[in-house]
Amino acid sequence: MFRKEGLTLYSLLQVKSGGNIHACMQACRPCSSPATGLISSSIAWRNLREHVDGIFDLHLKDLLQDERRCRDMIKEYDGIVLDYSRQRATSCTFKFLLALAKEAGVKEKIDMMFEGKHINKTEDRAVLHVALRAPRTEKIVCDGKNVVPDVWDVLDKIKCFSERVRSGSWVGQTGKVLKDVVAIGIGGSYLGPLFAYTALQTGAELVQLLANVDPIDVAIALNGLCPETTLVVIVSKTFTTQETMLNAKTMRTWLIASVGKEGIAKHMVAVSTNLKLVKEFGLDPDNAFAFWDWVGGRYSVCSAVGLLPLAIQYGFNKVNQFLEGAWSIDSHFRCAPLEDNIPVILGLISIWNVSFLRCPARAILPYSQALQKLAPHIQQVSMESNGKGVSMDGRPLDFHAGEIDFGEPGTNGQHSFYQLIHQVITAVYSPTHVCEPISNHDELMCNFFAQPDALAYGKTWEQAKAEGISDDLIPHKIFTGNRPSLNILLPTLDAYTLGQLLALYEHRVVVQGFIWGINSFDQWGVELGKSLAGKVRLSMNSVRMKGEELKGYNYSTTYLLNRYLKGKTLYKFHKSMLLDGKDKVHLRDIRQLVLLFFFDLIYHMTITSYT
């Protein structure tokens, strides 16, 4: 349309932005960063603020008519296709964004991360989850030591152990082959492994993943299991995580009832660095799989945290392919120029949408049921990493940072929250598709290709009228469009491409943090909640054991706690409700617990909204 009317997109931008093309042409020149202060005080940031005012009213239905722009906004690497042409951005926008990346020192910070520098300044730690998937011949140094040999020592140990379990040569205390595995973790020790485990699942489950301290979750995990044939993997770096250790103690009690204390070492292993506590718990320290303080929990899928359960379920060859896929993206992230670097581009898109277009939410919508746990994992990776209100040096941010992530697979999401996206809020739509050469996948693909255009173009009054829609219904059936999205296509879903997808999202989050100048590797907000929970735990114990009165809380918390403690007297149940004579859990008993604890949930449920 532009060219027929004698207007190129370039000249249209000149009109819309008040003729500020000179600034666009200067965007890729180096800018001097301020000696101190936030990135928002930099020249590149100010250029983007001026630029967004000039193009804010541009509509995607017009931007998508420029084929050259669209062609430039499609990138490919190692089988992955990224199409970000449906972003509310122009070629000029990305020149400004690349200038911002250079001013923020993104390339230098990437190098520092791979070099083992302590870029996690609040905890004085290196950030080296990339070392977890480095080839055996690679050299990555942290504090003067090449850490790659240590990583491969653990990988070799995982391979040996998982093969013994899978082959049946590792047996339990009574000599029976171990047929089931329960892996206990929380946060990154659960969500990441669950994402990878679910994505690769094609047959019967061998491994159960347990995180919640709710006894119902424990009962479900144990449903149908026999202690004599069960292996438990406890994942806790310090071996002190409250939720994990409470579940571990529950599992230990369950095992001891059948195999005795002397049999625990054959039925429980650990992923931890605290060998002293591992031994005190009754486990053999030789059966502990290490990881390091330069691996953050939400970035630990490629450590023993995620790989031990994956290796037991799918075999070490799958694990190796998973690591190779992640390293493919790691290498691309480290070496590719910023303008062709897919994780960098993804990070810049998020910066643009959150900080400049004021789109704080991102819907992650994989059109593959196998990726059903992608969104929950990225929620933690993104929101725990970048949900920060201060810069690395402690300055309060004066701009929007962090994203609200949510999502559902494919058409499930369409029938859940797309109505809100189409007609009420502007969320960044990020579908991922896995190409499958089967005809019955076409229906899913029709939706994958249709939704981004529906979000971009919307439907006008005139279009609705032309369709014969009555005037009274037209307001309900028109949509403004202009909802940004990007598409990621994978050639197939296997261990290799799964590793690629994981690394893409991890590095995207890191790039955002590098530019915003925040620490994407600590989580002090989580620590605050844990410390307050410790106080509540002591108070509850005092009320129950000593009959003391609750003190030190506001009226609301005091009321809810008292109501909860009063209600708990209704929920006493005997072990026989959970276990039969063979120590197997039955779902019929779990349903009884669900009914009992449902009222408990209502008593203390809290819904918080932010405006």
From TrEMBL:
Q: Where does this protein act, in terms of pathway?
A: Carbohydrate degradation; glycolysis; D-glyceraldehyde 3-phosphate and glycerone phosphate from D-glucose: step 2/4
Signal peptide span:
none
| Highest taxon listed in the record's lineage | Eukaryota
User: Which keywords does this Swiss-Prot/TrEMBL entry list?
Assistant: Gluconeogenesis, Glycolysis, Isomerase
Q: Does the keyword Isomerase apply?
A: yes
Record-annotated membrane-spanning stretches: none
Q: Which reaction does it catalyse?
A: alpha-D-glucose 6-phosphate = beta-D-fructose 6-phosphate
| EC annotation from Swiss-Prot or TrEMBL | 5.3.1.9
Name the enzyme's class: isomerase
Instruction: Name the Pfam families on file.
Output: PGI (PF00342)
Q: Which InterPro entries match?
A: G6P_Isomerase, G6P_Isomerase_C, Phosphoglucose_isomerase_CS, SIS_dom_sf, SIS_PGI_1, SIS_PGI_2
This protein's record includes keyword Repeat: no
* PANTHER family (UniProt xref): GLUCOSE-6-PHOSPHATE ISOMERASE
> Quaternary form?
Homodimer.
Entry similarity comment: Belongs to the GPI family.
What this protein is called in its record is: Glucose-6-phosphate isomerase
* Organism, scientific name: Sphagnum troendelagicum
* Source lineage: Eukaryota, Viridiplantae, Streptophyta, Embryophyta, Bryophyta
